[in-house]
Known about the structure:
Elements: H1 2-6, H2 14-59, H3 67-115, H4 117-152, H5 157-241, H6 244-255, E1 270-274, E2 277-282, E3 285-290, H7 308-328, E4 332-333, E5 360-361, E6 393-406, E7 416-428, H8 430-437, E8 445-449, E9 454-459, E10 464-466, E11 475-480, H9 482-495, E12 501-511, E13 521-529, E14 533-542, E15 554-561, E16 566-572, E17 576-578, E18 583-588, E19 600-609, E20 620-626, E21 634-638, E22 642-653
Parallel strand pairs: 6-22
Antiparallel strand pairs: 1-2, 2-3, 4-5, 6-7, 7-12, 8-11, 8-21, 9-12, 10-11, 13-14, 14-19, 15-18, 15-20, 16-19, 17-18, 20-22
Main location: membrane
Family: Belongs to the FCHO family.
Keywords: Coated pit, Coiled coil, Endocytosis, Membrane, Phosphoprotein
Amino acid sequence: xxxxxxxxxxxxxxxxxxxxxxxxxxxxxxxxxxxxxxxxxxxxxxxxxxxxxxxxxxxxxxxxxxxxxxxxxxxxxxxxxxxxxxxxxxxxxxxxxxxxxxxxxxxxxxxxxxxxxxxxxxxxxxxxxxxxxxxxxxxxxxxxxxxxxxxxxxxxxxxxxxxxxxxxxxxxxxxxxxxxxxxxxxxxxxxxxxxxxxxxxxxxxxxxxxxxxxxxxxxxxxxxxxxxxxxxxxxxxxxxxxxxxxxxxxxxxxxxxxxxxxxxxxxxxxxxxxxxxxxxxxxxxxxxxxxxxxxxxxxxxxxxxxxxxxxxxxxxxxxxxxxxxxxxxxxxxxxxxxxxxxxxxxxxxxxxxxxxxxxxxxxxxxxxxxxxxxxxxxxxxxxxxxxxxxxxxxxxxxxxxxxxxxxxxxxxxxxxxxxxxxxxxxxxxxxxxxxxxxxxxxxxxxxxxxxxxxxxxxxxxxxxxxxxxxxxxxxxxxxxxxxxxxxxxxxxxxxxxxxxxxxxxxxxxxxxxxxxxxxxxxxxxxxxxxxxxxxxxxxxxxxxxxxxxxxxxxxxxxxxxxxxxxxxxxxxxxxxxxxxxxxxxxxxxxxxxxxxxxxxxxxxxxxxxxxxxxxxxxxxxxxxxxxxxxxxxxxxxxxxxxxxxxxxxxxxxxx
Length: 655
């Protein structure tokens, strides 16, 4: 900063630059406060959502073998909410520190302003003397040249002497300003050196303080992430420790009716048959067997009164066991040892011993099983494409741009233009299954090309990452947060399960404009208004230079409001007059370079009035074009795993 102040340029503006740079530091501090406050708001909203989710888990059904698992979910989710609320508390404390620093910064800047007042005077003094010195130098040169010219041309001695007096006076004045400038320069350099050191000290302190704030912010976030990681590990351990046997044991202990065998001493269990399936309660435990008989003889069964609750309990248990069998692919054998066997009644009451039977439940074969309920959601029909995880996954992209232009009369220099664009990616519904079944899907990366004409790019920060340090001004690389993308696609799929494709807004951008040269259709409007008539002329011209790849403009409509009580209208080409809205509408065919006069033409109309004169009004123009954009921006996929199946481009007039 000292070197900068000692080389301030011809106009000695170094002081102003340094002073305003100091003020910008205060703006940065306030913006950092806003950023941390917004992060705190997001964390608080997330924590409240987690608390609400934990309450939901606590309200889920407590019936069935799976019920204890909800307690694990509830406890883990409550702890997760607590972690984020703790981060909110830390961020709120940090905000207070930053606000305190902003106040101290304002006081320091005010004090510095008072201390450098003399430097400002020195700056203004040298600027004034510099101007006077330059002016006196010019006068000195002019008077000296004039005296020499008179001498060479043989002018009278009197004229030569008069010129000499003026030259001498100019010389003395110039010499005086040279001396004043030397004194002012010395004072200026001394003052600026001191002031620049003050500014540098302030900036160094500011940057160090800001880095300390950011370090505290990073530490708070890092601590939260560590806590969340530990919490997740705890959740995983709890789920692993919740075995199938322990869940069944808990169910038996909470729902069992006793440990004594019911009925006759010789029988070891109670059975009930429903459609060839036996539900057996044995010493507080419950199992499921498939009977070898088509029906059971009730008179051979032990006496037992079954309630509706018993049947529901048994049904839930059977569903759970069937689920476990499918997932874990295990074998369950009913022992046929005499002391532990399950008995069915025989077809004859005369047999002394009940007939034994052996049941073996084999693993389910996927090709032979039809599951009535999905003992994941309703199918939405076939996907438009059949995708495998090893295939290059197809995606489509669409660029849609909107051009808004304001033409004032016939003056092209007063044309105001704003062009904005949206980039949308389309994913086939089948891609969701690939993403969810693959724990590490290929990262979707793309390059946005021809970005030199873009003034601003606003990516979807929830889904996209980018490197702000990229040096290429004509392209920019982006890559997806695949976990966030998968979650988003799953969410929209749940909302609209029958859709074949899902569109995702990726980014928005604003295009650099060059006034009327950026508009695909240039306009000039001329009004001639009298008390009895209004003459209107609209000149238009197709501008292919505004488009990256010129294409025809379609669906062109020009709407002009005309007041003053229109009683009759004549127009060329023919237009439509709406007497209710007092508007004149032209509908034109496509305009392109191949049109008559290369897309240039005029619209004329004469309006007869009953209550004139009319007031010139703002006309509205509508058109669109398919297959091209105004910016020329394009997309190129990077890496492997994906292919671009379709690219659509269009632009239209804005709303």
